[in-house]
Design brief:
By secondary structure, the protein is an alpha/beta fold. Helix content is about 35%, strand content about 25%. Helix 5 (about 140-160) runs parallel beside helix 6.
Length: about 300
Amino acid sequence: MLKQITVISGKGGTGKTTLTAAFASLATNALIADCDVDAADLHLILHPESTSKLDFYGMEVASINMNKCSACGICRERCRFGAISKDLFIDEHACEGCGVCALICPEDAIIMKENKAGEIYRSITRFGPLAHAKLGIGEETGGKLVSMVRKNASEMAAIYEIDLIVIDGPPGTGCSVIASVSGVDLVFIVTEPSVSGIHDLERVLEITTHFEIRTVVCINKYNVNEEKTSIIEEYCKNKGVEVVGKIPLSENSTKAMLESKTVIEYNDGVFSGTIRDMWNKIITCDTSKKSDTNF
């Protein structure tokens, strides 16, 4: 049966993608899905070779047929997003696709048209298949694109007879994060010992608790502030969430990225051994046990 694991963090810069890439190099018969579509960077380490590309269309945007337009300006007056200029030019980046302008235009000069908002890719890497995407600049349909990447990943898993999907989720707690964790078997949260790290861990745990998803935690750069690390460990203990590993601050991560390698490929020493131990724990984790945290 296909198993899905999502790696997320409450904030950016915690080492989420570094660990996802490391897991990719440790996994057997796995597919990787990069769902951090707003700022996808897993490809910088995995160097995928694209096998197919599909245009992604998000919200519709308004378009004015100037041959029918009487320049009455009603559309500009009613547009609450300021997307229509005085010369009746529609800024597609500002248009929210609400359709009010098309509804109230007395000349029926405005239509809603499809808007290309990004691209979806199927690729092959040295660690197996990769499903990934790129969201266009200023686009706001990340959640929908994440859902499509996951659908793409499931289809690829069936084609390649894959039994595990490792998902690199986006940071934060927005709709893209929800789309990346919904229906998965396990969520692996990466946090760090800082005030913002603790705060964002609490917020993202609320999401996994709501969806009743089995969740485990990793504390990255734990030795930067061991007092805060102890606070996180105690917090997780009280909430019934297992801390599966603590990773020390190391130059290995940066050096590995500079060589476009995973940390496992770069130096399979003590640092990588800690990540191996975590991977062995989560791959054998009992996902039938739902999250039992309380808020």
